[in-house]
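Running this now, will post back.
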Amino acid sequence: MGIIIANGSAAGSLLSSPTRGLKRVLWALMLVMSVAIYGSHAPLLTLCKVDGKIPFSASSVVVLTELTKLVFSFISLLIWDRRQLGVSLSWRHAAPFALSALLYAANNNLVVHMQLFMDPSTYQVLSNLKIGSTALLYSMFLHQRLSLHKWLALFLLTAAGVSYTYGGLQDLQHSSSSSEMQLHVTLIGLLLISVYCLISGLSAVYTEVILKTQDLPLTLQNLFLYFFGVLLNLTVHLLSSNGAGFLDGFSFWVLVIVVSQALNGLIMSVVMKHSSNITRLFVISCSMLVNALLSILLFSLQLTAFFFLAVLLIGLAVHLYYGVK
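Update: finished.
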């Protein structure tokens, strides 16, 4: 017994080691789940299509997703941070999240409008530039000086995204000698994609700053963020509604999208609170592997040299950012 008491610190260290190991496993599982959700989003949207068209209102899905996040956050607050319900809080704690929700809502709506000035393929390719804008704003607002090899890693990550979205997958059943991707964008489209990348980076980095600087549990911060998210996106939906029913065109796959995107949003809030937006960028880039696998299995698409180039670039980026000291 005396030995146990004399080596109490060593015992505490031994007890904490399994705890740290469990946390690492949970963290890894959470990131893998996020990669899977990001990668499955586009295939799920394809499964929802009826006669080649999306049958539901995109704004309805956004509202339901934000509402699901809000409900999950409230349940989490009741389970893990119930004591916070009795704490006196002011609007100073909640108000910063209104701007976050506004930026996210603006970006979601900008995606729809800017595709009037470019084709979808061009949007997919150019939207990879938000990796650079996010990294730059992350470095500025969180005072994180990134070394040269880390900037090179992020450049490779951007190049990987461009390579994959440009031609990582090919539909042999509908391919022809003249079916190579033709990119088209107007001057207004270039301006809008620049604004989109800026707002995308700003919304993510600003949210990370709030999550890290406030001395509040994440469950409560999420409650604030998604309350404003529901409010703003519901307003947008009501203003843009064309008279169709809120749930028109919904199917099982749409519900899967709502729940999975809500879960992913909560995972990303954990990542931004305890890691960084850079981790989020690597998760999104790695998700192209899941996207490619599902596209092959579900839609019989074929991999091209651009896909393998993208995989190589991602591997190099991960090594440069996390492996090189």
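The radius of gyration is 22 Å. More later if anyone needs it.
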